[in-house]
Write a structure and sequence with these properties.
The chain is mostly helical. The protein is built from four helices and no strands. The protein is globular. InterPro entries: Maln_transptMadL.
Length: 126
């Protein structure tokens, strides 16, 4: 049943890439604009919808949780290498702003982890 989690993730990824390409085309940029964000949004909304309709089997839900936890770090790593290449070719100010944004995000991790320690309603049932 975990294969359904992979199928849902793949469908969301393909739809996100399509929407990102469409958005890029609409604003005359030959690139994917926000495709990964669209894909993650579709994955979250579709899994919430399926859970509310009680169509989501426990094994499928575990598959979605597993692959979504693998998906996010891989995509972040891929996009960060592109951002570094763009920053290096963009000049000194782009590098300084990138380092500053990274430092602020790193400083926010302890605060965000304290906020998220409450009960989670979306965690899979054991």
């Amino acid at each position: 049943m975990k294969i359904y989690g992979v199928a849902l993730l793949a469908a969301c990824f393909l739809m996100g890439k399509l929407l990102g390409r469409l958005l890029g085309h609409l604003i005359n940029i030959d690139s994917d604009i926000g495709g990964v964000g669209f894909a993650m949004f579709l994955l979250m909304t579709s899994s919430i919808y399926l859970r509310k309709k009680k169509w989501l089997v426990l094994e499928t839900e575990k598959g979605i949780w597993f692959w979504s936890s693998m998906y996010i770090p891989i995509i972040v790593a891929m996009t960060s290498t592109l951002n570094v290449k763009a920053a290096l070719s963009g000049g000194f100010l782009a590098i300084i702003l990138g380092i500053s944004a990274t430092a602020v995000c790193m400083l926010m991790v302890p605060l965000l982890s304290k906020i998220g320690r409450g009960k989670s309603i979306d965690s899979p049932k054991k």
